[in-house]
Amino acid sequence: MRQPSISVIVPVFNTAKYLDECITSILTQTYSDFELLLVDDGSTDGSGQICDNYAKNDSRVTVFHQSNKGPGAARNAGLENSAGEWITFVDADDRVKENYLLNLFSHVSGAFDMVVSYSEIYQNDKVVTESYPSKIVDDHNFQTIFTENEMSWHTSPWGKLYRNSLIKKIGLSFFEDMYIGEDAMFVFSYMLKARSFYISSDTDYCYNCGLENTLTKRIYSLDSERISHDRIRDIVREMIERKGITDGTALRKLQWLEAYYIRRVLNSLYYNSGIESERRVSEIKSMDLTPYVNYKDGYSLREHLFIFLLKHGQYRLYDFFRCRIAAIKTKN
């Protein structure tokens, strides 16, 4: 059986509203040497049937159905069944321009283990086209992906090509016990193993930002948020050490990433019911809050007050104010 050049993996869960547009945008690519793996993650809105209908009419499409396990598990199912030399991901509520695969593949060479591109961001009636410089990246200029290419938050798996043989060689997969941050873990773990990669200024991925029920806006259980925080903290610090990142701007960008996940843990303490005050204070004391309290850009005046309290060890006072504000928000 002939190996396709690219395996396109789409995790699908209750996205019937967007799915036809997504799948059609892939099947009408100007580059045709690919397989499309649709992984229905226990959808209940007819998304699975939509996938099956496409598979009946196009031999490039294969559908897998599984009980709901989350996007990481769905992507893993795609990886396990992929035959392509290269892997790319598309989210089921997004779409790609007709030259998405062609442009990605045009940058492939024997030296590169990865190709990165950017997107057009669609939010309501606004469209923002990302603009970042193209470059070849290796250990000599690795930290410039943070100073020049904003890779501290471009951590989604889509918009990128990954060498399938390297994924299998290092045994890389998505953490299935993470509900936020599993994308960054996959992308950063892969980058740490890649010999070199190419960053393209192409913007052929169309990202629907701000959709209802977006995963990044949800607060998960304390245990889940702690798992995400701990793993992101560890991968960030490993990257700094192994890649010798010393540039102040790059370090600040990575500090922001750590601060984001610390903030999520703190929020989970006050927006999950049943967590007693003593445990909240104990959890706060157990964390290294340094990246959060030292990163101040974009914080509100109220959050600056919270940070002041944390920085000066006023944990119970912090807990008191956070409880009152959470109660007001919950009531409203």
Structural description of this entry:
With 332 residues, the protein is of the alpha/beta class. It folds into 2 domains: 6-212, Spore Coat Polysaccharide Biosynthesis Protein SpsA, Chain A (Alpha-Beta Complex); 219-331, no CATH class. It has 13 helices and 12 strands. The chain has helices at residues 16-27, 47-57, 71-80, 100-106, 144-147, 164-170, 182-193, 222-242, 248-271, 277-286, 290-294, 301-311, 315-331, and strands at residues 6-12, 34-41, 61-66, 86-89, 95-96, 114-116, 119-123, 126-129, 135-137, 160-163, 197-199, 205-208. The strands form 2 sheets. The protein has an 8-stranded mixed β-sheet with strand order 3-2-1-4-10-6-11-9, with helices on both faces. Helix 2 (47-57) links the parallel strand 2 and strand 3. Helix 1 (16-27) runs parallel beside helix 2 (47-57), helix 7 runs parallel beside helix 8 (222-242) and helix 8 (222-242) packs antiparallel against helix 9. The radius of gyration is 21 Å and the shape is globular. The protein starts with 5 loop residues before the first strand and ends with a helix. Residues 212-216 have low confidence and may be disordered.
Helix content: 40-55%
Portion in strands: 15-25%
Rg (C-alpha, Å): 21 Å
pLDDT average, as an integer? Answer: 94
| Count of DSSP H/I helices | 13
Tell me, what's the shape? globular
